[in-house]
Design goal:
The complex is a heterodimer of chains A (about 325) and B (about 290). Chain A is built from 14 helices and 9 strands. Chain A has about 325 residues and is of the alpha/beta class. The interface between A and B is large, with 56 and 62 residues.
Chain lengths: ~325, ~290
């Protein structure tokens, strides 16, 4: 597992404890008391470390190469997943994957951005950066859900929509805009979860939902801290300061009334315990679906409109 | 420096100049301006009378929201609405300058309250609700106020059952309001959904420049999308794309002509024809009145 820079002291302590255990075993010396104390101290240090992370440190957890991906969650959280490929117009973008599955017996259309865990996978999934065709595939699946009255679940982890020549030629902006508008018209419950990176329009294009949640260490922002720093500070190395200023953490967004809740991550981040993470995710999604299913389609659309209608802060 | 370098440098400077705000060349007095495209020295008054279009080469200078409104609406018919809505600083944002200071500077520079003017007016006798953006106010960026005023203008169209017109000019979402700016994309697009459901005509005019979060929301959702001649329109900026794909892009990339070639817009209009084109569209879609 990749150890992040700020985790190194913790890692060293854990290594020392391991060493101590080995020594005591091989020498037969009983130091179990000391080991226990050290372990307790290490655990406390760990708790404190992860409770006091800076936005820039949490960004590293959100971008961790071992972080569970969309397909990990599909595997752990759903049954009977059947992937539905393609935009029906010539492309099957791999950065957005979607299909039908069951969560606790409830059929849903589940769509998400997919990242790889290594270079080879990332080349397949384009580092989780969708092309316009990915958003159009998602739209087709939204309509499918609408037609068959299936709730929609979207899991979002993207550094943004892909900024490429072909993406512009095939109307990246329009593809996202159309999703924003069409999601407002859907008659079925929509639940969106930012599971890692929720960067800009590329994330929002799947997130005009009745309920929007964030995993504890994920982030959601109008622009990446690096992009913001290079534009406003004219210096990409000021990304840490930008991350602070942009208010991108789950707690910030809950305070700003942009999201409906935070889904707790295992100590150390989602990658430390896939099973626990997907259980948490699943129970949040299911309890939201249960509540939203009771609301009539008209009321649901109205509530969704009002939810986004009231966002924004200004003087009057 | 070789001769080749010198030409290279000169070319770069010319391109850079095109990205700057139109400026009066003080060295030759306020009566004259220089065209960024053909470099012709032009009489300020002549350019003004020609709708801020170069009389020599036809290059369309960027214009502010008030000038645009004067050019598009029948005289004395435009009634500004919701100008009481002004910028807050919800995140207490400071980059190299505090956001509050940037806003104060933009207000002083443009004599505007924010980057959009909204209201209702008549175009060749047809009533429309309109939102006209102003690039001079913080790059026409969309924060809470722009999103709110555009949405209110659309709701005004719904209330009065009249068509909606948006003229865009924006670098995208306003970073200083972070996630709140992003959410304006959702808010305005949801309002477009309401216009669709009510069957009201929505026309967008994309002008130089229209990018980022504005392109990825209400700008490209028009039932009819018109690009003004010489406008550059896109989602990601040219430089970002060049850095990502590590190759240089065609010279006409993201121009109105380029978008037309790729089927993203309905038409390109010169500034001179814009008003009559919009009026004709409004007339063609008129069915019940009479």
């Amino acid at each position: 597992m990749t150890i992040l820079e700020f985790e190194k002291p913790l890692y060293e302590i854990e290594e020392k404890i391991k060493e101590l255990k080995e020594i005591s075993e091989s020498s037969g010396m009983d130091v179990s008391n000391q080991i226990e104390t050290f372990e307790k101290q290490a655990q406390e240090y760990k708790k404190e470390l992860y409770a006091n992370l800076t936005p820039a440190q949490r960004l590293q957890i959100a971008r961790h190469s071992d972080r569970p991906t969309f397909l990990d969650y599909v595997k752990l959280m759903t049954t009977d997943f059947i992937e539905l490929h393609g935009d029906r117009e010539g492309t099957d973008d791999r950065a957005i994957i979607g299909g039908i599955a069951k969560i606790d017996g409830q059929s849903v259309v589940i769509i998400g951005t997919q990242k790889g865990k290594n270079t080879k996978e990332n080349l397949i999934y384009n580092f989780g950066m969708p092309q316009p065709q990915g958003y159009r595939k998602a739209l087709r699946l939204f309509y499918h859900a609408n037609k068959f009255n299936l709730p929609i679940v979207t899991l979002i982890d993207t550094p943004g929509a892909y900024p490429g020549m072909k993406a512009e030629e095939t109307a990246q902006g329009t593809a996202i805009a159309v999703n924003l508008r069409e999601m407002a018209k859907l008659n079925v419950p929509i639940i969106a979860v930012i599971t890692g990176e929720g960067c800009s329009g590329g994330a929002l294009g799947l997130a005009v939902a009745d309920r929007v949640y964030m995993l504890e260490h994920s982030y959601y922002t109008v622009i990446s801290p690096e992009g913001c720093a290079s534009i406003l500070w004219r210096d990409a190395s000021k990304a840490d300061i930008a991350a602070e200023a942009l208010k991108i953490t789950s707690e910030d967004l809950l305070k700003l009334d942009i999201i409906d809740g935070i889904i707790k991550e295992p100590l150390g981040g989602a990658h430390c315990d896939y099973e626990m993470m997907s259980n948490e995710l699943k129970s949040t999604i299911m309890s939201a679906i249960k509540k939203l299913k009771k609301i009539s389609p008209d009321k649901l659309r109205e509530q969704r409109y009002n939810k986004f209608r009231k966002m924004g802060v200004f003087c009057q | 420096m070789t001769v080749k370098d010198w030409f290279e440098q000169r070319k770069e400077m010319q391109i850079a100049r095109r990205d700057q705000d139109p400026q009066i060349d003080d060295s030759i007095g306020k009566l004259w301006v220089k065209c960024y495209s053909c470099n012709a020295q032009l009489l300020r008054k002549e350019v003004e009378e020609n709708l801020e279009v170069c009389p020599k080469c036809g290059y369309h200078f960027r214009i502010n929201a008030r000038t645009r409104i004067n050019q598009l609406f029948d005289e004395n018919t435009f009634e500004e609405l919701f100008d009481n809505i002004t910028t807050a600083d919800p995140l207490d944002f400071t980059d190299t300058e505090p956001y509050k200071k940037r806003i104060a500077q933009a207000k002083a520079k443009t004599n505007m309250t924010e980057a959009v003017i909204v209201g209702v007016g008549k175009i060749e006798g047809h009533s429309v609700s309109a939102a006209v953006m102003d690039f001079d106010f913080m790059g026409g960026s969309m924060g809470s106020v722009v999103g709110e005023k555009v949405t209110l203008a659309m709701e005004e169209a719904l209330k009065r059952k009249i068509p909606m017109l948006v003229v865009t000019a924006s670098g995208g979402a306003r970073m200083q309001e972070s996630i709140l700016s992003l959410m304006q994309m959702a808010k305005t697009s949801c309002a477009v959904a309401k216009l669709n459901e009510a069957g009201l005509l929505y026309i967008t005019v994309l002008t130089e420049p229209t990018f980022g979060g504005v392109t990825a929301s209400f700008a490209t959702l028009g039932d009819i999308i018109i690009a003004e001649q010489d406008a550059r329109i896109g989602f990601a900026g040219r430089r970002v794309i060049e850095q990502t794909i590590r190759q240089s892009l065609p010279a006409d990339f993201q121009t109105a002509n380029y978008l037309m070639k790729y089927g993203q817009i309905d038409m390109i209009s010169s500034r001179a024809d814009l008003k009559s084109t919009i009026a004709k569209l409004l007339d063609l879609h008129k069915c019940e009145e009479n």
